[in-house]
Amino acid sequence: MNFYNTLIKWYLQNKRDLPWRKTINPYPIWLSEIMLQQTRVAQGMPYFLAFTTAFPTVFDLADAEEEKVLKLWQGLGYYSRARNLHKTAQIVAHEMNGIFPDNYKDLLKLKGIGEYTAAAIASFSYNECVPVVDGNVFRVLSRYFDIETDIAQASAKKEFAALAFELMPKDNPAQFNQAIMEFGALQCVPKNPNCTECVFNTSCLALKKKKVDQLPVKLKKTKVRNRYFNYIVAVDELENTVIQKRTAKGIWHNLYEFPLIETDKVEDFEIVAQQINQQFFQENAIESLMEYNEESIIHKLSHQHLHIKFWKANLKGTIENGMNIETAKTFPFPIVIHNFIEEEL
To answer: What cofactor does its activity depend on (predicted)?
Structure first.
């Protein structure tokens, strides 16, 4: 009880003024939760505001073109979230008359909604007594109670959820969930938390045992794959270029890019030029080829590091299906390509 009382008192004094906290409407709550997975609030806020302006209701989102959804999502990363968001909006709008399920179990059945998001919507919208367990909650509880369970283990979520449920007041689960997540986001941060000014500094076991920087325990290391992308920015006699849609499963599915040559390592001019001649622009002779960037741009994803080079290929004649760069800019691109276009073209 002391933990709850102290936590709520802190929350009421320190909570951020966030738009999705001013409603129990599941639509904006769902939007915010999907957007804030793997994304900080400061980064996600402009996207939330853009989405709720463009798509004020779940029906508006459901009826939007996927490319418009992806374009507005551009820069948030993890684009499968946006595609699942769009598909789920269509299910809720067209099969459920725009009404979200009102309980945790049924929310879990929707595409792209996992245990954490279902718990958040169920508690914030419907006040269901179900705890949210995200990275913030793992961190706060593991430190306060000195729990050394490896949070990378599948069983860890059940253990922490059971503890959170025990601590949660059954008459106001929404406020408890908001408070513990906020405490982890603002006070009990991953690195160098200010424990001297923490409201729990007399009762936190990790602080007493000088283990704050050791918790939570996460032992499984993600294996990172290196990939080498060479993007060919073609320019014909009309100053038109060409882009293509990534239709294969994997990163950036359904986003657009320039013609791509993927190699096993960073390759030199001759190798790239040879592969361009073999794979692209058979109808157009290449007058010149140059690097936009001598050093690869390293774009880090959760399981992959992409080493990216952009090559300018000046072509004779006109490209089939070519478009000017202003038209190309209206398509959804991965942020690393979007940034390149804005800076170089």
So the answer is: [4Fe-4S] cluster
Residue 112 in contact with residue 84, Cβ under 8 Å?
A: yes
Q: Indicate the CATH number of 225-344 among 3.30.930.10, 3.90.79.10, 3.90.850.10, 3.40.50.12710.
A: 3.90.79.10
pTM: 0.90
pLDDT at 278 (0 to 100): 86
Peptide linkage before 216 cis (omega within 30 of 0): yes
Residue whose C-alpha is closest to residue 306's, from 228, 246, 250: 228
Question: Is 33 in the active site?
Answer: yes
Around Cβ 143, how many Cβ atoms within 10 Å?
Answer: 26
Domain 2-214 fold? Endonuclease III; domain 1 (1.10.340)
User: Which residue is it, tokens 């040559």?
Assistant: 261
- State the residue for tokens 């459901």: 62
* Rounded average pLDDT over 321-330: 96
Give, to the nearest 10 degrees, the angle between helix 66-73 and helix 80-95.
Answer: 130
* pLDDT, tens digit, 9 for 90 and up, residues 56-83: 999 999 999 999 999 999 999 999 999 9
Token code pair at residue 268: 């030199």
C-alpha–C-alpha distance, residues 298 and 19, integer Å: 35
Per residue in 261-284, pLDDT (tens digit) is 999 999 988 999 889 888 888 888
Radius of gyration (C-alpha) of the chain in whole angstroms:
24
Determine which helix (DSSP H) or strand (DSSP E) holds 298, and give its type and residue range. Answer: strand 297-300
User: Cβ–Cβ contacts within 10 Å for residue 113, how many?
Assistant: 24
